[in-house]
Amino acid sequence: MQELFRQNRKMGRPPMRWLVRKNGLPFASFLFCPDKTHKTAVLRNRSKRILRELVRKYLSSIPVGYDCALLVQKDFAKLSKEDREVLFLSVLKQFP
Questions:
Q1: What is the rounded distance in angstroms from the CA atom of residue 73 to the CA atom of residue 34?
Q2: Angle, to 10 degrees, between the axis of helix 41-57 and the axis of helix 81-93?
Q3: Keyword Nuclease on this protein (predicted)?
């Protein structure tokens, strides 16, 4: 995963960004990273739960063979469910 942060393609805009790198495997792997603006573990875990649910819901739309890091700020969890989905899908359209 360290290579993902060194050599990657950045997509999206705050409050959600994706770092993507080819891994050459027949599946996609995900890393969920709330940033330091989340003051407590409760807020970080909530953001991770939301991201995991979005990935589960749209997994069939995500190409295989990539490592993905999803970076979110605290404002992501404050968005409405519909706005989060729109943001997620807009970044997914930029996927290589």
A1: 6
A2: 60
A3: yes
Nearest to 77 by CA among 47, 45, 51, 49: 47
CA distance 45 to 59: 20
- Tell me what the pLDDT averaged over the chain comes to: 92
CB 94 within 8 A of CB 16: no
- Please give the helix or strand (H or E) that residue 6 lies within, else none: helix 2-6
User: Domains in the chain, ordered, with CATH?
Assistant: 1-93 (3.30.230.10)
Of 65, 72, 67, 37, the residue nearest 51 (C-alpha): 72
